[in-house]
Amino acid sequence: MDKTEILEILNDWNYWNRDFPPTHPRESYGNKIDLWMKSDEVVVIKGVRRSGKSTLMINRIKHLKATGVDMKNVLFVNFEDPRFINHLDLSILEKIKSVYMEYLAPDAKPYLFLDEIQNVTLWEKWVNKEYELGLSHIVLSGSNSSLLSSEIASTLSGRYLSIDVYPLSFSEYIGFKGMTVTNKLDLVNLKIELQRAFEAYMKYGAFPKTLEYSAEQTRELLVSYKDSILLKDIVARYKLKEFGTLEEIAAFLLSNTGIIQSITKIKNHFHISYDMARNYVEYLCRAYMLFEVPKFDYSLRKQSANDKKYYSIDLGLSNILRVPNLQHRGSNLETIVFLELQRRGYKVYYYKTNNGWECDFLIEKDQKIEALIQVTLSLKEEKTKKRELRVFAKTIKELNLENVNCIVISEDTSKLEVYDGMKI
To answer: How far apart are CA 75 and CA 88, in angstroms?
Structure first.
């Protein structure tokens, strides 16, 4: 690529001579990015495609401008731009930086925002050079967890801070819709609007762009997201030939979110080899389409061997792949809880007692098991109540736990209850 071509692309994406687009703030991420940028480490923003990583970068550029940073000292590069195709090797990074330095002439250490960096071969070598020589402040984004993690671990070990970005939480979702809840009175006043919003959240998911479209348009958008993730982040990345099989496995696991599965079961169901089943599931997890949750065990060997639970990144994706008229509200609620636990930084497991009772979530933070969580639609029926609550005392006894909270999340009214001597 010649200098003129590169400069045209950079000018199209940057805000040197144009206004910023309207965006919504996501302060929980923004505050963390701002804090970590001050540390001068490489900041890595990771997450599923279309979850809002690029917008987070634009919001940080807005913040820099608001705090007095001259925009000529900021460079944003989108490596998804098709004009970069066939040029995405190590040399393109140096060419881009050279063109930027020559034509913009920044007068301070520049801020580089490199979007979808995993598209560039050997990008980590160049980023490491910039870091080691103190030439730039660097913020990266990427849509493939394994690719980023392996490259960072080998080249940038100890030099980066990473942030996992998810589709909108329900709190963010209602904020994007213009609703603010700060106290119980707000909950009462907005009860109908919040219930309606929650139904849409559960049906159409929480990719930010879906809020701008009608129901039919949202479905088409989600289908395009699904295809884009599968084709760009998996098929192209791993040079796969069996796209149909990959799509079928994705549909099976996404539509059955929160169900315990085994690789052997998937192998048998799709009549493929064990290695293919294992690899395809791993690729879906690497692309952030799925999350794998292990059964808790004090033995890491047993933990690795046990069957896993798989959760969808977004219920909108799950719903476009499901058979009509089947009810999934219970597993949907469980998936929403799981994703919120992920956002809050918990390490999440499930547990099965010796007699087969399942505890939906056992959560850990800072190497301490903090809580056991059951998710159910309602505890009003005595049979359901017994099934959901009996597992707490049994799990605590088997795992010899102390000082853990026992929590049931349902659509019932909140209350404190004692069952089998346990406060729930």
So the answer is: 18
pLDDT 10s digits, 35-83: 999 988 999 999 999 999 999 999 999 999 999 999 999 999 999 999 9
* CB-count exposure of residue 393 (10 Å: 0-12, 13-18, 19+): middle
Determine contact, residues 28/107, Cβ cutoff 8 Å.
no
Q: Name residue 350's beta-bridge partners.
A: 295
Nearest to 333, CA basis, from 373, 293, 376, 291: 376
How far apart are the C-alpha atoms of 231 and 202, rounded to whole Å?
26
Burial 325-342 (b: 16+ CB within 10 A, else e): eeebeebbbbbbbbbebb
Minimal CA–CA distance to 371: which of 408, 405, 332, 325? 405
Three-state DSSP at 68 gives coil
Q: Can you say whether the dihedral through the CA atoms of 385, 387, 388, 394 is positive or negative?
A: positive
- The whole-angstrom separation of Cα 69 and Cα 164 is 26
Beta strand residue intervals within 204-340, DSSP E: 259-261, 290-293, 308-312
- Separation of alpha carbons 353 and 333, rounded Å: 22
Residues paired with 406 in a beta bridge = 372
Q: In this predicted model, what pLDDT tens digit does every residue of 380-413 receive, in sequence order?
A: 999 999 999 999 999 999 999 999 999 999 998 8
Radius of gyration in angstroms for the set of CA atoms belonging to the chain, rounded to a whole number? 23
Q: How far apart are CA 268 and CA 247, in angstroms?
A: 16
Per-residue pLDDT for 342 more than 80?
yes
Other beta carbons within 10 Å of 107: 9
Cα–Cα distance between 424 and 420 in angstroms, integer? 10
Q: How far is CA 304 from the centre of its chain?
A: 22
Q: Kindly give the interhelix angle for 123-132 and 90-104, rounded to the nearest 10 degrees.
A: 50
205 touches 314 (CB < 8 A): yes
**Would you tell me the crossing angle of helices 274-286 and 145-155 to the nearest 10 degrees?**
80
